[in-house]
Amino acid sequence: MPVTPAATFPVIPHPLPAGAESRAAIVANPVFGKSFSDHMARATWREGEGWTDRKVEALGPLPIHPAAAVVQYGQQVFEGMKAYKWADGSFACSAPTATPPGWRHRPGAWPCRS
User: Does 75 reside within a domain?
Assistant: First the structure.
């Protein structure tokens, strides 16, 4: 597949773009997960075609299938993380790839312990 230059992304302007003052404030102090551009790039990958339907458009929701691996992975990690309270009142949390019974025999195996 040939590399597609950014210039081939048509830009669909946001109907209500952020004003210069608001944009300057965000750029001066960006906060991860809270500061966003008012536009986003979008493209679709198709086997045999590569990236198609390229465009820059107004920031908005992304349609995603409920069975998408990214959604399932998040749930799996959540279900795999466990916290255990010890008799002395402290707690320990497990890693998603290990189980507590096997850890009891390995010193320092708990990744977090209060």
Answer: no
Provide the mean pLDDT of the chain: 77
- Asked whether residue 74 is domain-assigned, the answer is no
Model pTM? 0.51
Q: Which residues pair with 46 in a beta bridge?
A: 50
DSSP 75: H
* DSSP conformation class of 91: E
Q: Could you report the per-residue pLDDT of 68-89, keeping only the tens digit for each? A: 777 766 555 555 566 778 888 8
Q: For residue 28, what are the domain limits?
A: 6-58
Give the Cα separation of 53 and 38 in Å (integer).
20
Residue 52's φ and ψ, nearest 5 degrees, are -125, 175
| Residue 25 located in a structural domain | yes
| pLDDT at residue 104, as a whole number | 47
Query: Considering its fold, how many domains does the chain have in total?
Result: 2
Spatial separation of the C-alpha atoms in residues 17 and 72, rounded to whole Å = 34
**Same domain assignment for residues 84 and 52:** no
